[in-house]
Structures are given as C-alpha cells and as structure tokens.
User: What shape does this take?
Amino acid sequence: MADNREPTEAERTTAVVATASLIAQSRVSTDRRNEGKSNQEETVAERLLAAGLTLVGTRKITTFRQAPNPGEFCRESTLGTRKADLIATAWDGRIVPIECKVSNSATNSVKRLNNDAAVKATSWRRDFGNTQVVPVAVLSGVFKLHNLTDAQDRGLSLIWAHNLEPFVEWLLATKG
Assistant: This one.
C-alpha cells in the first residue's frame, strides 16, 4: 500500500492464508465456547434433576410468584430484565439464577464473567433483593483471579463445573 501498487501474487496469497487462519481460529474458539456452555447447562440441569428438583417450563419472571416453586427449576428464562441460563428456587424460597460460563483464555474471562454474569447478578439483586436472590455462575476454563474476586465482590457465587457437589449440597440444605 505504501508503494501505491497492486500486491504481488505471493503477497496476495500470504494475506489470504493469514486472514483465513484468523477467521478459522475465531470460529473454532466461538464454537468451543458455545459447545462447552451447552454441555455445561445440560450437566447442571441433570444434576439438579438428580438432586430431586423438578424441571418446569421457561418463563418471564417479574415477581416472586412467577418464579418456579421451591424445589423446581426452569431453563433459559428472564428474571427481571435479564436472562439466566437456568433459574431454580431453593426450598427456602430464594431464587437462584444460574449462569454457565466457559472461558478459553484469561483475557476473555473478564467479558464472560464480569461484563456479563456479574452485571446480571447486580441487576437481579437490585430488582429482587440481596437476601432473596442468590446469583450463581458455574465456571469452566481459564479465568483471571482478580476477575473471579471482582465477580464475588459484586454478589456472584462461583461454582466450578467439575465440582457441582457443594452447590447441590447447599441447595439440599435449604429444605430445612
């Protein structure tokens, strides 16, 4: 471009190969995230069912009465003004919105966790109350420690997808 001329065949080939490589890498990364997130959502749903919760229909929840009943959960639904991957209601009546997040790089973790899940947690807690909503993020992959800490400081409970048992035990303990 600086020489104000058409590229040589070798330059054109190099540009095409480099561009194709970048596009392929981006698509593979996106596909892996989406596949991982779908698998993670399915795993969480299966674990909730195994723990005795009942799956109910998707819904828009603007009041507590519209939430699943205690011991129930629904898949991708809107809580207030923001969607959650799953929404459970603990046996003590607290609403538990669950976001499934997969990050393939520490750099990407801020987008997945802090700019998405933690923002939703703040919104849900503002709309429904700090003690009535327990926002949860189920995580897989690579996350920067300071992003994890920031998300927790904003009211988001973090659960690692490979170890759902503490979360399930907490839910079961809400039976009283």
Notes: The helical segments are 9-50, 106-128, 145-153, 165-173. The two ends are 72 Å apart (CA to CA).
